[in-house]
Design a protein that fits this description.
The chain has 118 residues and is an all-beta fold. The protein is 0% helix and 53% strand. It has no helices and eleven strands.
Length: 118
């Protein structure tokens, strides 16, 4: 059973930084594509960044140049470094595992709240 536990959210001022972490268990982490999603109130959940087992990455246009996704296979952990945060980055952020068989993200964490406000 896949378990994903996010941490690192909080309240930050515009222009500030946060680093989110997602600890994974119940999967072969090093072989897994992992993603960070976010969902703001009244909006659909969107992919923020993804990282494959070969460490190639993909980013939403809205976060390119500000956010960095990375992974540590020795710790079964994926990170999202968020810099130059904007109020529009306010959302609940979720970690997810991509299922290579179905082609979908099918395992999710509980989410962590990120609020960007002065």
């Amino acid at each position: 059973q896949v378990q994903l536990v996010e941490s690192g959210g909080g309240l930050v001022q515009p222009g500030g930084s946060l680093r989110l972490s997602c600890a994974a268990s119940g999967l072969i982490f090093s072989f897994s594509t992992m993603g960070w999603f976010r969902q703001a109130p009244g909006k659909q959940r969107e992919l923020v960044a993804g990282i494959r087992s070969d460490v190639t990455t993909v980013y939403a246009d809205s976060v390119k140049g500000r956010f960095t996704i990375s992974r540590d296979n020795t710790k079964n952990t994926v990170y999202l470094q968020m810099n130059s945060l904007k109020p529009e980055d306010t959302a609940v952020y979720y970690c997810a595992r991509h299922n290579r068989v179905t082609g979908e993200y099918d395992s999710w964490g509980q989410g962590t709240q990120v609020t960007v406000s002065s």
